[in-house]
Design goal:
The protein is of the alpha/beta class. The chain has five domains: about 1-115, 3-Layer(aba) Sandwich (MutS, DNA mismatch repair protein, domain I), CATH 3.40.1170.10; about 130-265, MutS, connector domain (Nucleotidyltransferase, domain 5, 2-Layer Sandwich); about 435-535, Orthogonal Bundle (MutS, DNA mismatch repair protein, Chain A, domain 3), CATH 1.10.1420.10; about 575-785, Rossmann fold; about 790-870, no CATH class. The longest helix is centred in the middle third of the chain and has 33 residues, at about 505-540. It starts with a helix and ends with a helix.
């Protein structure tokens, strides 16, 4: 430690170390002249992430330190890379003009950019929110808040760990704030997939949070926002506001309200369902998601809102029908649809532009874009007010015409205003007489110099006379050596070149002072007038935000109409019943990916709580069982978003929860086996089921031995049948033994995905038909996958041998017996034949994932020997 103190510090490094000490967790970009520099550990990280050169400052001296930097004008190129790598970046700028000080330039952090707090267009994605979240662990419940500082949207909620987990999956925050003492707890409950930042425990206090929110919104109570009872939610929201002040974001007038996410207002989907249905993300690299198929929004605001509608489908029938009516009107009124679509294309991201106004980060060209966007809203407002649809009429009336704002911007800024205020020529003519006069002096300069050049050429007779300017001694007259004897005495020589000499005159010096003074004054005056404009706009933030929100709604509904028209979707009928009837339903994503000319095989699904509560779907792998399950959920989801659906017709009793257990969603990285994950997910379903739930179970029990699997699958189906909620369930399975359940349980019905058997192959017809299926066609699938003929041949022989030795009849018999026992406890069956027990052991202990084809043949040979020994 003593050695560190003894180490010499230059004044610059002393200043750097003082500022860095205040931001130990952030990468400090330290402005030195025209560069942003990083030092020490920061430099090592910076060089690695940005792939730039790592050098040394003061190499070989006592003050040697690692150094990496980049030009200040490249900040927008490099900053996003650092933030996307999960870093917090403190931007330290020069706070004074180096020319104005004789000592070291004053510097300070002007902004702290973190994954969840950024206004930088390069960091943000236009169609996706960039949420900062805070999670608070209360005694009984958890609180969560989400803020997108780039749009001003602020949400809060509280509930169980499962509910908060679902919201974290839905909102997908870029950064999560957590109380230091709950660091481990957060990871245990929510995993390690989030960029986390830990705040001191005192920040998560009820009084502090209430005071922070009331002061920010300038209210005496939070009742007006409907969040006054959400104690834990308020605490998390307070932590978010505290973090903004800590990251130097104090201009946040665009955060004008906070909304409660009401748990009972939206369809419940747990994180497994969101992932399994691939709504807006997929584990596969190039997979097409539902969002990608239905998102035909034009504006960034609409794109972000559609994502939220998908995450939070409605349960209120009136709200759903209101959206449906607008979609119908848009489809039936092409003129209105065309007007709206055309005008939305002219609209920029108003929400983010307004946020930049509030934080004074907006540039002149953006302000002109804001004005043009507000102009583009007027035809939409006029058309909506005239429409016969009540909702659209209301939207038309709510849209502000913002006439004063538009006129003020138009009269203040040039239409061709530059990207940056420092480039000059932003403020329009006629705004300031003084500015116009100064510009006249500045622009008349060239004429003045031309006149002077002509006059002096005539007077001296020097034909090659030239007037130019440089930064060293300003304006000068250049004379070639061949004419230097003609130079007047009053000219003062300033520089001698090889072929010429440069002179200055009193007249040139006076003129230079006048011109340079004018340019400096012009710049200062433009900055003042621009700041005044931004201050004016800051007073009208809410009007512009409301317009952005209403345009986003219209954009989403227009997207629904376009998708429905292009893909032959129909309007579903929603009612208060618990029935589900889909005629010729299609999978919205798969049908878009079919080869040209191939038609999607549509299917009917009927589910109710009286006669057909559980549909048991059997059929071979690859036949389309999973697609039928998923498409049923997606049709319900789309319907409850207010969208039309891919079907011939659909009647849907409002669903309140959608549960899925589809496909192998291994959580092995967390140290859990496939089977354990499967059981966790299924347990979550059985513990939260309701009478309006829709449950989709795919291949339950396949992660364990056959008889364990059959027993568990049977028990789960039986539990759902006997449960008082009688929840509607689609159950896809390859255990054909489960077909026998229909004999014992009246509301279990068998269906199968039909196949056509030819001599050596099968054709998957992908049509759902009544009745169970007795074959799995697994070996046919292996053949289609290109398995060597030798392996296929051997597998067929073994299958016949196994079927001869042990039929399904005794399994069915035992299942029937077990299901009739009073305690409903199912035993795990044992194989009667010791040889088959050995074969079972041999197969189960084989790691198929790492098996080569040669090893597979050897293993089959081994099993063959076991059979021939007998």
């Amino acid at each position: 430690m003593a050695k560190t103190k003894a180490k010499k510090e230059t004044p610059l490094m002393k200043q750097y170390n003082t500022i860095k000490a205040k931001y130990p967790d952030a990468m400090l970009l330290f402005r030195v002249g025209d560069f942003y520099e990083t030092f020490g550990e920061d430099a090592v990280k910076c060089a690695r992430v940005l792939n730039i050169t790592l050098t040394k400052r003061g190499a070989g001296s006592e003050t040697e330190t690692a150094l990496a930097g980049f030009p200040h004008h490249s900040l927008n190129t490099y900053l996003p890379k650092l933030v996307k790598a999960g870093m917090r970046v403190a931007i330290c700028d020069q706070l004074e003009d180096p020319k104005m000080t004789k000592t070291i330039v004053k510097r300070g952090v002007t902004e702290l950019v973190t994954p969840g707090v950024s206004f930088n267009d390069e960091v943000l994605q236009s169609n996706t929110n960039n949420f900062l979240a805070a999670v608070h662990f209360g005694k009984k419940q958890l609180g969560v808040s989400f803020l997108d500082v780039s749009t001003g949207e602020f949400f809060t909620a509280q509930g169980s760990a499962e509910y908060i987990d679902k919201l974290l999956q839905n909102f997908h925050p870029s950064e999560v704030l957590i109380q230091k003492q709950h660091r481990v707890k957060f990871t245990e409950v929510f995993g390690t997939n989030f960029h986390s930042f830990y705040l001191d425990d005192w920040v998560f206090q009820s009084d502090f949070a209430n005071e922070s929110l009331e002061n920010h919104f300038k209210v005496n109570s939070l009742k007006g926002f409907g969040i006054d009872t959400l104690t834990e939610g308020i605490i998390s929201a307070g932590a978010v506001l505290y973090y903004l002040s800590e990251t130097q974001h104090n201009k946040i007038e665009h955060i004008t309200c906070i909304q409660r996410i009401q748990e009972d207002k939206y369809v419940w989907m747990d994180r497994f369902t969101i992932r399994n249905l691939e709504l807006y993300a997929s584990t596969e690299a190039n997979a097409v998601t539902l969002l990608k198929v239905i998102d035909q929004t034009i504006s960034p605001m609409g794109g972000r809102l559609l994502r939220r509608w998908l995450a939070l489908p409605l349960k209120n029938i009136d709200e759903i029908k209101t959206r449906q009516e607008v979609v119908k009107y848009l489809m039936d009124t092409p003129d209105f649809f065309e007007t709206v679509s055309y005008q939305i294309k002219q609209i920029s991201d108003i929400e983010r532009l307004v946020s930049k106004v509030a934080t004074s980060k907006i540039q002149p060209r953006d302000v002109v874009n804001l004005k043009n966007s507000l102009n583009a809203i007027i035809p939409i407002k006029e058309a909506a007010e005239k429409s016969s649809n009540t909702s659209l009429k209301t939207i038309g009336q709510q849209l502000h015409d913002c006439a004063e704002i538009r006129n003020t911007i138009k009269s203040t800024l040039f239409e061709e205003a530059p990207v940056n205020i420092n480039k000059g020529n932003s403020i329009a003519s006629g705004v300031s007489q003084e500015l116009d006069d100064l510009r006249a002096i500045s622009t008349s300069g060239k004429d003045y110099l031309d006149a002077m050049l002509t006059r002096e050429t005539e007077r001296t007779g020097i034909t090659s006379l030239k007037i130019a300017f440089n930064n060293v001694f300003g304006y000068y007259i250049e004379v070639r050596n061949s004419h230097k004897d003609k130079v007047p005495e009053e000219w003062i020589r300033k520089q001698t070149l090889v072929n010429a000499e440069r002179y200055i005159t009193e007249e040139l010096k006076e003129y230079e002072t006048k011109i340079l003074g004018a340019e400096e004054k012009i710049s200062k005056l433009e900055h003042e007038l621009y700041a005044k404009l931004i201050h004016y706009l800051s007073g009208h933030i809410q009007k512009m935000q409301l317009n952005a929100q209403l345009i986003a709604q219209v954009d989403c509904l227009t997207s629904f109409a376009k998708t429905a028209t292009e893909n032959s979707y129909v309007r579903p009928l929603l009612d208060e019943s618990t029935d589900l009837e889909i005629k010729n339903g299609r999978h919205p994503v798969i049908e878009k990916q079919l080869p040209i000319g191939e038609e999607y095989i549509a299917n009917d699904v009927v589910l109710n709580r009286t006669s057909q509560q559980i549909i048991m779907i059997t059929g071979p792998n690859m036949s389309g069982k999973s697609a039928i399950l998923r498409q049923t959920a997606l049709i319900v989801l789309l319907a409850q978003m207010g969208s039309y659906v891919p079907a011939q017709n659909a009647k849907i009793g409002v669903v309140d929860k959608i549960f899925t257990r589809v496909g192998a969603s291994d959580n092995i990285s967390m140290g859990e086996s496939t089977f354990m994950v499967e059981m966790n997910e299924t347990a979550s379903i059985l513990n939260n089921v309701s009478e309006r739930s829709l449950i989709l179970l795919d291949e339950i029990g396949r992660g364990t031995s056959t008889y364990d699997g059959i027993s568990i699958a049977w028990a789960i189906a039986e539990y759902l049948h006997e449960h008082p909620t009688k929840a509607k369930t689609l159950f896809a399975t390859h255990y054909h033994e489960l077909n026998d359940m229909t004999n014992t349980f009246e509301r279990v019905k068998n269906f199968n995905v039909s196949v056509k058997e030819l001599k050596d192959t099968v054709i998957f017809l992908r049509k759902l038909v009544a009745g169970g299926s007795e074959h799995s066609f697994g070996i046919h699938v292996a053949k289609l996958a290109g398995m060597p003929t030798q392996v296929i041949h051997r597998a067929n022989k073994m299958l016949k041998q196994l079927e001869k030795n042990h039929t399904n009849e005794d399994v069915k018999e035992k299942l029937k017996t077990a299901s009739q026992e009073d305690d409903l406890q199912l035993s795990f069956f044992k194989l009667d034949d010791p040889l088959l027990e050995d074969i079972k052991e041999e197969i189960l202990t084989t790691n198929i994932d790492t098996l080569t084809p040669i090893e597979a043949l050897m293993k089959l040979n081994e099993i063959k020997r076991m059979l021939t020994k007998k």
